[in-house]
DNA sequence: TTGATATGTTAGCCATTGCTTACGTAAGTG
DNA sequence: CACTTACGTAAGCAATGGCTAACATATCAA
């Protein structure tokens, strides 16, 4: 799981992001997630698979239901990628400023 | 520019991410960016347009060349979105833990 | 102006992907 | 056991998107 590509692809779809945002509020089973989202339940399952394989959400079985929740792992990986790029840019700006002296 | 959708869509393509990463190292004109990337220069221009409209890179004209550089704005917006989701999840975990007591 | 350099834009093609419908599966209930 | 509930999977379709080739534009130099 969880290369950068998979993470950004997962978060690039509006429906998937909506699911992700609701799971950030609180853990939920698939059926409840499907309500209030204008796509069918199978579509939700497919989206959850993408989010899960990216490491952005986690599943826990409870009887016949599967409780999905936000997975810190994927969030952290995405954040660290952006931080890395940001730090690179800072170093670059600094180097450029010193060359200007 | 710069709704969350546009940002994640921009970063979800490997070629665009490669351009973004190189611009994080240092500012560059289009021609130099196109070298070392296995797509044609027009494709690079199209990708840069997407990154620019997302607020992830900025342009500055220098004669016939256009120098692209990383734009902190888009990076910051993406980071803050992830932080927001992460904080939501923390609140949720906390509330769930208190209900368990 | 003429030419060269550097870049953006357009049209069209092919692969990807998000959606629905239909089906498969597994855990509870009578 | 049969039945229901909750969910995942597969097939097929329509829309999106990234790519190339060809063209348009703009700046500088001679």
State the fourth-level CATH superfamily of chain A.
Winged helix-like DNA-binding domain superfamily/Winged helix DNA-binding domain
Determine the fraction of residues in helical runs of chain A and give it as a percent range: 55-70%
Supply the CATH architecture of chain A. Orthogonal Bundle
Order of helices and strands of chain A: HHEHHEEH
**Shape by Cα distribution of chain A:** elongated
The top level CATH class name of chain A: Mainly Alpha
- Our estimate of the beta-strand percent of chain A is 5-15%
Spatial order of the strands in the main sheet of chain A? 1-3-2
Characterization of the model:
- Chain A is an alpha+beta fold.
- The first copy, chain A, has one domain (4-100): Arc Repressor Mutant, subunit A, CATH 1.10.10.
- The first copy, chain A, has five helices and three strands, in the order ααβααββα.
- Chain A has helices at 4-12, 14-25, 30-34, 41-54, 72-100, and strands spanning 28-29, 57-62, 65-70.
- Chain A has a three-stranded antiparallel β-sheet.
- In chain A, β2 and β3 form a beta hairpin.
- In chain A, α1 runs antiparallel to α4 and α2 packs across α4 (41-54).
- The first copy, chain A, starts with a helix and ends with a helix.
- The mean pLDDT of chain A is 93.
- Chain A binds chain B through residues 4-5, 8-9, 11-12, 14, 17, 20-21, 23-27, 69-70, 72, 75, 78-79, 82-83, 85-86, 88-89, 92, 95-96, and chain B through 4-5, 8-9, 11-12, 14, 17, 20-21, 24-27, 69-70, 72, 75, 78-79, 82-83, 85-86, 88-89, 92, 95-96.
Brief synopsis:
Two copies of one chain form a homodimer. The first copy, chain A, is of the alpha+beta class and 101 residues long.
